Amino acid sequence: xxxxxxxxSLTVQDLKVSRAFYEKLGFEVIGGGEDQNYxxxxxxxxxxxxxxGMFDKNIMTFNPSEVDVRVIQRNLKEAGIExxxxxxxxxGIGHFTLVDPDGNPILFDQHVEETKPKSQAGKAAWxxxxxxxAETVRDFYQAVIGWQPQAVSxxxxxxxxxxxxxxxxxxxxxxxxxxQDIPSQWMVYFTVxxxxxxxxxxxxxxxxxxxxTRGEAGQRxxxxxxxxxxxFAMYEVNY
Length: 239
Prior knowledge:
Blueprint: E1 5-12, H1 15-24, E2 28-33, E3 38-43, E4 46-52, E5 59-63, H2 69-78, E6 94-99, E7 105-110, E8 124-131, H3 134-144, E9 148-153, E10 158-164, E11 167-174, E12 186-192, H4 195-204, E13 208-214, E14 221-225, E15 231-236
Parallel strand pairs: 1-4, 5-7, 8-11, 12-15
Antiparallel strand pairs: 1-5, 2-3, 3-4, 6-7, 8-12, 9-10, 10-11, 13-14, 14-15
């Protein structure tokens, strides 16, 4: 689940003093204003917010841009996480809050209308491999390609993200459970902007649905066979 850009919102006693301090560290103001009692500053990929008189504690902030904030909220609630506030709208911008086990506030704040531009459609977004013996195949690619495995628990067994440094390069999964019917081949995930419309066009244009739709709104996919017999996964990018 993509949580979005991470930043820290700091509650400060004197906005001008704090601004001068962080500018000496190399941060530049990119948003807000002293007349609004807050400033947003950036240094390379690091982002901080300075807030005077607006809240009591420092806050960890995520700004989702690729997944709708309501999808994240639903996933966290289904995982048993209690929220302190919730998104009150059905679409567009929104935010919700929670606290971690040590009482640290966390804010999820989606402040843009579009969660993901339609230009993202039509791309190969991911590739993975589903096999009977994931451990043997994992070890093969670790030795031959140099990927490092990162276990992803599936309950009583693990699937694997194969990492290139800190970045997932691909996945190697067991042909079990919900993956039982996925063909044992490198499966590329092509993104589409209108998932339901694209799905209707599969059979209308000589293709087959090998594995019906899985996942939830905003993250649905199905495995498709094209008229030549090549399989791929069709993945939703708009919400």
